[in-house]
């Protein structure tokens, strides 16, 4: 049926969707907010969807508590305070359980006689005394007590008498080691000295330590006794100095506080710069140091791996003559410090006999190089070679220009390249003018060792003088600035004085009559 209807609609040219009922649009759901308490319905309707500009809070009194059950009765009871020395008896109200009250006052029966009824009507007797609930907070300190024998043995002091010591311990026992109160109420009758709090503490702790040490030696004390003994050590001088420093800190002026803050900031800046310098130095050392190996060495732990590694090193250093294989003929050993003769020395000793040629045959294991022999120890052959070298005196070394070196740099270099000259920019820019003024050439004609040394010394002195002249110019500039400021201040003072004098003279002039 539905298919036939669709065919008829197609023949008549009627849109199939035109006759279908349209879906009603969905209504936008409104969220109804609860009206807050304390605001009327009409006022809340005027606000609409906007939130109230001011939070509306209704202040109400606390609800009346709802009691469930009977009211708990209160009863007056007697008590005594254990902290009091007298037998004072006081009373206070105590809340009782309603069940206990009913048990203590049962309802009389009709069958009871008159005496029982009178007894029930009569007020009950006072209950027994209770322990005072705050008596547990009355804690008394245990103060050490000494005997006459102990005082005569270890407690005698020329500055403290026995009566004054007893008075001090009495105050301490009474006020529970509260030193501020003890020092305030310390008034020993007949005492000629003003005792400070530090004097009282030093006397008390010294007495306690001496008595404890006399009763039980330090080596035989238990852990608790030893801890208490060491805790009673009192340094009077340190405590006095501490209080003096605290008093100085409390009475500082604003200028002193500002100066101290400036010094702290400067110290922090110096510390930060020093830390940065250390970090940069460590980074430089890490860069200059050889690269750390991060690979595995498992392949070189066996004999075959070590042989392969040795072959690789030999191939990489083929152009370098290693001392472990053959010592070079033109370089001295590290163990032998021999004079190096220059080409100008006609009597330079020959060094050919001081080095042994390496064994070229394959079957002689007793032939070794000089480096191997020097590693095992001195040999007679080495001593013989040393004895064949002529020892030159200081005058001969100066005459023949012989110098000693710990280690020579391989290759050709100029001696002027190794001079240690100042690297400052001011020296590099101003040193040519100074050298020209002194008549010294920048490039040495004969750069011998002595000439280069003198040149380095002269360059360092010139750099020091240039730095000194720079400082002097800076001080002169600051002096001129200060003098200019001082002159300006004096001129201002004179100008103000002249103005005041003119004003005073004008005020003293008689006024003209009109």
From TrEMBL:
GO cellular component assignments: NuA4 histone acetyltransferase complex; Swr1 complex
UniProt keyword terms in alphabetical order: Chromatin regulator, Coiled coil, Nucleus, Transcription, Transcription regulation
Keyword Signal recorded: no
Gene3D superfamilies assigned to the protein according to its UniProt record, in alphabetical order: Homeodomain-like (1.10.10.60)
One GO biological process term: DNA repair
Described function: Component of the SWR1 complex which mediates the ATP-dependent exchange of histone H2A for the H2A variant HZT1 leading to transcriptional regulation of selected genes by chromatin remodeling. Component of the NuA4 histone acetyltransferase complex which is involved in transcriptional activation of selected genes principally by acetylation of nucleosomal histone H4 and H2A. The NuA4 complex is also involved in DNA repair.
Family: Belongs to the SWC4 family.
Protein name per the record: SWR1-complex protein 4
Organism of derivation: Drechslerella dactyloides
